Structures are given as structure tokens and as C-alpha cells.
Task: structure prediction
Amino acid sequence: MEIKLLHQPDNAIAHVTLDAGEEIIAQAGAMVAMSGNINASTTLRKGKGGGIMGGLKRMLAGESLFLSVFRAPLPNSEIWFAPKLMGDLLLYEMRGDEFVVQASSYLASGPNVDIDLGWQGFKSFFSGESIFWLSISGQGPLLVTSFGAIYEVDVDGEYVVDTGHIVAFEKSLSFTVGKANPSWIGAFLGGEGLVCRFRGKGKLYCQTHNPGAFGSLVGSQLPPR
Result:
């Protein structure tokens, strides 16, 4: 399997080339185009994060109940995947460690990558974000989406990120939610609100745009229905 990311970071799309017998799993609706010989089917997956309960848990995190499976009967079969929002793609190679991904950012993965619901506790709830995150494990390629460009941070110690700009992070990092400003009044007037303070050593991936803030801005300009 070969995956190339094109048109980054504004309108990223993934070009996947499959060998005979290979398959890739994707979020429902992620496929843009594919070779006519590829076999497409729908699954709830088996094993960790699979089955009807796994599908229902993915729904809690903002993902679809079902996943799409694409199998190639012939070599050099092509398939294209793209995110729903204008933004970037991250190709992350899973090597057995756990990877935490924000709700709605999962796009596609190899057949040996497991997707489960991760509980990040009420600290995420109070941050204004989802209390559920996707817990990714296993082996193989993983495609993650963002709103805006993705940038990587090698955390070694402490790093602070606005809660709406987090895409994913390695499980070796822990985090707490708090104010950007020591004063509640200062935090409110500064417009920063709540932030996540990551601690430890590992990779953190952030997005340049905040979907919640964008939705509030655009929504306020729409005429009432």
C-alpha cells in the first residue's frame, strides 16, 4: 500500500495505491474516486472497537456507525480520500502505541489499525470539547483530517494549546484543562478561554483553524430560518 498526500494544506486529498489483495478501511463518505475494479463494502468491523457496540461508541464521538472497506483484486488499484472540511491531512504510521484523535478527525486506516472510543474524562467536557476521543491502536497507516493546516509539535516538558485547535496526540502525553490567563476576567476579555496543558514527551498535532469558532462566526451571519 502506498499513500501520497496532495494539495496540502488547504485542500488536501489522499491518493492510495493498493496491491492485489490489499484493503483499506475508511470513514463512510470519505471516498472521492476509485478504480472500477475495487470492491467496496460496509462493515462494523470485528475485534477491538468493532461490532455494533463499537459502531455505537464511534457515533458518540461524532463518527459514522458504519465504516467502508475497499479491497483491490488487482495490483495498482487507485482510490482517493478527502475530508469533509477544507483542510489538511496527516499520515501517521501506527506501530503498536496508542494514539488519541479528536472526534470527527478519523478518515482512513489500514486493516490492522483498531479504532475505539477513548474517555478523556470530564476535563474535556469542561473545556467545551467532546468528552469522547478516538483511541487508535494497532499497526499500519492512519489518515487523520483537520480544519486548516496541521502542524507538529515535539513536546518535551509542557506545551499549551487552545482546546479547539487539537487534532491528535500520542498517549505518552498527559493533559489538564485550565485558563490561558490566571484571572477568569483576563481569560474572558482576552478571548482565549480554556486551554489544554500537555505534559510529558511525545508528538502533538494541532490545526490552524478552530471549527467551533468558525461555526459561531458563520452561523451568526446567516439569516434566521
